[in-house]
Structure formats: C-alpha cells, structure tokens
Amino acid sequence: MTTTVPKIYSFAEFAGVADAVADHVVAAQNQALTNSIPSSTHNSSSSTGQTPNASSTNLKNGKSKKEKVVNKRFKIAISGGSLIGVLSQGLLERDDVQWGKWDVYFADERLVPFDDENSNYGNAKRQIFDKLEAMGKEMPQIYHIDESLLDDAQELADDYEKTLIKGFANKDSVRLPLFDLFLLGCAPDGHIASIFPNDHAVLREKLAWVVPVENAPSGPKRRITLTVPVICHSHRVTFVVEGAVKASIVKVIMERPEKGLPASVVNELAAGRVTWFVDKAALTETYL
C-alpha cells in the first residue's frame, strides 16, 4: 500500500472541530442539492420523518428542470460515537441546514434496542433528531435498522441492504450506493464504522453492501456495518477524530499505511475525496 496523505484540518479545541465539520457538511449539502446531475429516483419510505417524493426527477411527467433541482436529496451516512456530539454542536443552531432535504443512513449499528445507550440511531435521535423536532425544524428522512430483527445479524444486514437498494435504485442497475457525504469517526483500536482491524473477512468484503459482525472485540458484540467499497464510493469521505486517546492510532493510520488499518485502506481507495478533521490532541504523535 502506498502512502496516501488525505487533507487534514486540525484545531486547538473541540469547538473548532465542530464548527469546521458543520461548514464541511453544509458545503456538501449545497453541492448535492444544486448539482446539475439528476438525482436517482427516490421511491422508498422510512419509519421516521416525511414521505419522499418518488416522482421528483421524472421530466416526462412535466417536471421542469427547476422543480427537479428543488426535489434533490442530500444523501449522508453517519457513524456513531463522539461524531454524534460533534454534529449536534455544530449543526443544530445553523439556519443554512436544509434538514428536510436530507436522507440520513447509518454507517453501522449495534444490535441493541433503540433506547440502549449503545444504539447509534438512538443516540442520534436523542442528540439531534429529537432536538430538531422540539425546535420546530423540518425533519430529515431517517433510515435506521428494523428493531424487530435484532436477534439475527445476517437477516438484519440483508434487510438494511434492501433499504439502501430502495434509496439508491435497484442493485442490478447500481453497482454501489453513492453517498454525497460519508461521515466516520475512528476508535482508539482503529475500527471505523464496525469494521475492525483484524476482521479480515469484513475488511476485504467486495460484493455485499452491508454485512453482519458477530463477535466485535469491543463494545456490543453483534452489529452490522456498511462495507469498505460502499464507503469509498462516496463523493466525500470525512473522518472526525478528537482526543489524545486517539493520537497513537492516528499516527499508525497516517505514517504506517502498510499496516492495513481500515482508515488507511479508505485513505488509499478513496484518495482525493478523503478529509480529516482533528483536534491538536489527536495529532500529538503524528509527523505531518
């Protein structure tokens, strides 16, 4: 593996990271909603939020180009952990976030009930979506796992892949889903989403969009995760990492890509589309 250094923005404090990430997210949103390339037909529904317009891109039915732009969607994937707090702090008070045009998917999920503190959707709901509703703002489309399938990781992975297929057109016609922005954190052990450094089967998965994880080495054992090809196919891939506890793993990711940590693999495969937002504490051991 060659050394591929992504764009890295560092800030002295957490607040600086949150504000910069928010700017980055809004820039990605604006690009997605104004891009002249027609968006894919959006014909699925979610259990939370408003019902999307399935005919937004059908010019044959009399839709004008202007109407097509208005009905574009911003497709974003988010992971859990501290990233949720970063997004909450950076985005909630802004008036340029078009929440009603967002389609929010999850990079991974732990197989726990939504009211469990380890649920990525549950944490996002409590820290972001519930607050949006209380503020009277438009709600995004939120695509979470089916809570009734927690007993079977493979069935849940298959079901969430079907959710992606509905949101990004048929799998037969679309090789991979194309997110406008894929947001990730990075844990001290080097895992991203629920792709762990020594889980070679998941790390090397080439065909599936979503796979089960049955024995995660930390946190809840049973999970599902979107795969490396899905992550790397995104228009933008963004890592948000903060804290001195992450310093040693950031050093390995940036300086020893041959170790093959998941984030290093993404840096390589999505080269030119990867951005890192970090605080100074996370870079204390890294020479860049």
UniProtKB/TrEMBL annotation:
Keywords noted in UniProt: Cytoplasm, Phosphoprotein, Transferase
Disordered: region residues: 36-66
Bias type Polar residues, positions: 49-61
Domain Glucosamine/galactosamine-6-phosphate isomerase: 70-276
Single annotated GO MF: 6-phosphogluconolactonase activity
InterPro entries named in the record: 6-phosphogluconolactonase_DevB, 6PGL, Glc/Gal-6P_isomerase, NagB/RpiA_transferase-like
Superkingdom of this protein's organism: Eukaryota
Gene Ontology BP term (one): carbohydrate metabolic process
Subcellular location as annotated: Cytoplasm
Gene Ontology CC terms: cytoplasm
CDD domains: 6PGL
Transmembrane segments: none
Stretches with biased composition (Low complexity): 36-48
Function: May be involved in regulation of tRNA subcellular distribution.
Family per record: Belongs to the glucosamine/galactosamine-6-phosphate isomerase family. 6-phosphogluconolactonase subfamily.
Name of the featured protein: 6-phosphogluconolactonase-like protein
Source organism: Cyberlindnera jadinii (strain ATCC 18201 / CBS 1600 / BCRC 20928 / JCM 3617 / NBRC 0987 / NRRL Y-1542) (Torula yeast)
